[in-house]
Amino acid sequence: MDLAALDRAHVWHPYAPMPATVAPLVVSSASGVRLQLAEPVAGVTELVDGMSSWWAAVHGYRHPVLDAAVHAQVDRMSHVMFGGLTHEPAIRLAATLVDITPGPLQHVFLCESGSVSVEVAFKMCLQYWLGRGRPAKRRLLTWRAGYHGDTFQTMSVCDPDGGMHSLWKGTLVEQLFAPAPPGPFDRSYVDGFAALLGRHADEVAAIVVEPVVQNAGGMRFHDPAYLVALRELADAHDVLLIFDEIATGFGRTGTLFAADRAGVSPDVMCVGKAMTGGYLPMAAALCTSRVASGIAEGGFPVLAHGPTFMGNPLAAAVANASIDLLLHGEWLGGGWEHNLARISLGLSRGLAPARDLPHVKDVRVLGAIGVVQLDREVDLAAATAAAVRAGVWLRPFRDLVYTMPPYVTDDEDLALICTAVIAAARTCG
Q1: Assembly and partners (predicted)?
Q2: Is 402 annotated in the active site?
Q3: Residue 127: which pLDDT band, with cuts at 50, 70 and 90?
Q4: C-alpha torsion sign, points 387, 392, 394, 400
Q5: 147 is catalytic
């Protein structure tokens, strides 16, 4: 069977034309931090995964603890509807999420993807204000350079000009956008954000941001003090606050959640990706009792959302195992915080030489995120090929060559990933 030919004829890949102009690599298996290729590419038969499969496979592949959790749950039940029924894996997962996220977040809505969890968060906020008799509060306020998903409502709060969803302008709901936040804390920026919010407070349902790191919108980092300011502004103007921690949650920035860096709680928080260790699709939207009661006391007292695979037992079981492994597992050199600090230091040292390359605009590292930003667009095919020749899988985009490696990546493989990032960046000079 010619898998590559069948793929080209029938499979539509994300953010790619049909048929694809750059042929995807066929992976036959994966183990640890390595992807085994079905056929050699440039003499390479396996690749170190520098992307954690889009930031989700934080424990790598075929982890024995996670494999065992899935197998054990299959022996009990793979799925049961969540309407009118419940089960131990979902109950335990919800309790754990409440325990490890900021204190005011007490209620958990489980769903099947990050984009959907953000949709649910928006629906919670809009329905809250309907329940409070303020239907005019139906717009969302965010800052530019953000990314929150590919469904229509989430696209409406992605960057309206520079993002991949700009072609839907005029079709999407028009939201409110402040400028992208500067990296260091800037009081004048906060004052401008406050002025925008003040002018529209009567129609704003919620502020929504990615805390500390704006991910797919440009891998931009900002001071956690902005989150404190947003909490204060939301309270002062009677709007809700949403943190989208799909990418930043479960340790990626060096703290368990990015919100922990600021010591504040949103009214709604979205989590996903690393929650199941990349094994199965699952995400969640957590909210405060204020939000839940506001909906329950309204004219339509139920949250108007019900995914078919909500609370899927397989996904919940592996999520429980993944979170337990993150918090209590044995890591290289100590606990998870020490391990993340090790990865951060390795990325800082390994990517430092990129500063001397032509066309490199910035090199930055936060937690287990390493970014090389160029002054021009990346040649995706050339940059990917350079990384593959170095034995690493990377997925550059726009003007960025970056890595979010699995947390189980050892120092030797981490150095190899940095070498590949630099090799990919060189193709743009």
Answers
A1: Homodimer.
A2: no
A3: very high
A4: negative
A5: yes
CA distance 261 to 257: 8
Active-site position among 273, 279, 402, 413 = 273
- Residue 143 annotated as binding site: no
The model's confidence at residue 164, banded by pLDDT at 50, 70 and 90, is: low
**Annotated catalytic residue 244:** yes
Is the dihedral angle over the CA atoms 114, 119, 121, 122 positive or is it negative? positive
Catalytic residue among 49, 137, 159, 244: 244
306 assigned binding-site residue:
yes
Query: Residue 244, annotated ligand binder?
Result: yes
Separation CA 207–CA 205 (nearest Å): 7
Q: What does the pLDDT average to over 140-148?
A: 96
Residue 313 in marked binding region: no
Q: Is 137 a catalytic residue?
A: no
3-state DSSP assignment of residue 32: strand
Q: What DSSP state is assigned to residue 248?
A: T
Residue linked to tokens 């992307």: 51
Q: How confident is the model at residue 329, as a pLDDT?
A: 87
Percent of the chain with pLDDT over 70: 99
Read off the pLDDT of each residue in 144-170 and give the average, rounded to a whole number. 86
